Amino acid sequence: MKTLLDVKEGESVKVIEIKGSSCFCKRMTAVGLFPGSRIKVVKTVPGPIIVDVAGSRFALGRGMAKRVLVE
Amino acid sequence: MKKDIVAALVGNPNVGKTAIMNALCGTKAKIGNWPGVTVEKKEGNFTFRGFSVKLIDLPGIYSLSSYTIEERVTRNFLLKEKLDVVLDIVDVTLLGRNLYLTLELLEMGMKPIIVLNKMDDVKGYNVNFKKLSTLLGLSVIPVSAYGGLGLSDLSEKIVEVALGGMKGNVFQPVYSETIEAAIDELSVLLKEVFPEKSRWYAIKIFEGDAEILDEVLGSSIGERFGKILERVKREFFERKGEDIGAFIARERFVIASDIAKEVIEAKKECENECLEDKIDRFVTTPLTGIPIFFFIMGMVFKITFTLSSPFIKVIETVFRDYLPSLLYSFEIPGILKSIIDKGVFAGVGSVLSFLPILFILYIILSILEDSGYMARAAALWDNFMRLFGLSGASVIPLILGFGCNVPAVYSTRAMRSPAQKLITMLAIPWISCSARLAVYTVFIAAFFENYRTVIVLILYMTGIFIALLFSKILSSFFVKDDDEFFIELPAYKIPSLKVVVNQTVIEVRDFIEKAGTIIFFASVLIWVLASFPFGVAYAGEHSVAGMIGNFLLPVFKPLGITDWKPVVALIFGGVAKEVVVGTMGTLYGDAESLTVALRGAFSPASAIAYLFFVLLYVPCVATVSAIYQESGSKLWVILIVVVELVIAWMVSFFVYHFATFIF
Questions:
Q1: A11 CB within 8 Å of a chain B CB
Q2: Quick one: pLDDT band at residue B601, thresholds 50, 70, 90?
Q3: Which of B36, B97, B373, B609 has its CA 20 to 30 A from that of B127?
Q4: ipTM of model
Q5: How far is B471 from chain A (nearest CA, A)?
Q6: CB B449 within 8 A of CB B437
Q7: B462 or B444: whose pLDDT is higher?
Q8: B301 pLDDT above the threshold of 80
Q9: Which member of A23, A31, A61 has the closest CB to residue B485?
Q10: In a mutagenesis test of the B interface, which of A14, A18, A24, A27 is the best target, namely the one with the most B β-carbons within 10 Å?
Q11: Which residues are within 8 A (CB) of B341 and not within 5 positions of it... i.e. 6 or more apart?
């Protein structure tokens, strides 16, 4: 399965699933990261992944990014 | 008629809540912590048309899920406090995401005033705020905290709502059929006990809110409710293959985005590669980001020390030379002169001498924070800091520690994870501040002129090494929470000088009020120790201080210290570490120069051991009081003081014996 870690810089992808506790998923939903949403990966390695979600920008730890499955 | 109005500010992080508060209240604000938690609480006041308005800034949150402490603090405050007005601060440039929280407030039964901030940044498209107002059934006030736009409209609206309340029906999100049916099923039962909140409770329980679920399960319908909830959730899962809570949250986000789409006219998104992407990549990739980081930090210190040193000199001259000589020209008893000079002047002087550095450092720091760089620096360092149980957010506080530990401790306020905030705070005192450099300089001049750089470098590296090691050990005692790195990178912008200066004035005043009094009393205490019993030489062998020095001397003998005077200097250095040098100057007053005196009192090996002790032993009183305020716990303060003393002694002992072997 492809995760956010496998996306190249500058690419836009569609989120399929977010693994983890339901609390974690809901928190991500509140910022626009949920199955079906489109996100753009701004920066990959090394360190946290930077993504653009509906115009706002977030840095996610790699462990977190691994839990985001994408198309 | 009602004259006092209480209003709370709710909103996402980085929407400019503080800037709005600043624009309305100026410097009339105070900072504290929410009871029992290390979450910052800000309050401000302003008067408008004879009304006195109190604003309470709630922590920045993305949702009301009670997942983080900030979310719990906000939710409980909104539920329990008697508020006249709730202001929902919305970043108009990120309308969809911000409206998510708005919808949650509406579900909760709130009728907030929608404050659309950052209207200045709306360029090339339109936001139809009248339509937004109609859609939500709420008052919408467009403002720009930086540009000063719409603030009087906002004040007017606050008073109007406080007096008359919000009229009419407000928007309520309606979810898809299956979800609504499930909500209805719970609501029917919930109505028996919680008639007004049944819908909200049902939604929150589906979303996994443990506090509300416990409340319901503990009520008279608890048992029946538990069974129904389980069945409804299971049925939903069987039908949709997913947890109902996640579904609700997602639909809410879509509803919020749809509202945003309806009111935003002709917005162009940056599709492929924008400038911001390039900058972000540049500053967060280690190869380019680390040099930039060190360049910026170097500039921060350079600017701070250059700008502050003339002010510090003036303060020192006034309090050490000018005022004392003025004092001694009066005909008053010697004892009075002594306490005014060495107690009051020295105390006030040392409080004031902190201010220039604090003030300038805070200004530069708020500029970095507001510009958006700070969040990027945290992202840059996260990986490295994780090796030591810290996170990217710990970097700035630790680096600031090199300038002065006090603002460094205060800057941990910006950190989100409580455990990491505490660990960072306790690691800061190991970082060698500029006051300690003053001590190194004097000793190096006396003993190691040729090895100046090496010795200073070794001392600094030892401090960093122990800080990281200490964090690593301390972090292993904390339960690993879900503290994965997650931080918003706010859009780059040019900070407003007015907001920055106001913010700094508030923070510095906070320092004077809290730490200032402690430093002052510590100085007076030192005077008492040095002057009693009356008639002895100040801080001489027969004073209380001298006796304590002699009493403690055996502890320092293994470190190669054979004289009581350096011991007394260490005690006095607890006020501020540069005082160590000043005290030695007083105590070795008869010698030709301090350099000569030091050469008589120390061997090179004991001098270097002494420097290590100065580096590592108890943080100064100002730092201790800052840690106490920020952690809110005496236990941690005592722990850090004891640990530091023990480590300082052990390291110095090792260094002394190692050095005797080499020299």
A1: no
A2: confident
A3: B373
A4: 0.92
A5: 20
A6: no
A7: B462
A8: no
A9: A61
A10: A27
A11: B323, B324, B327, B328
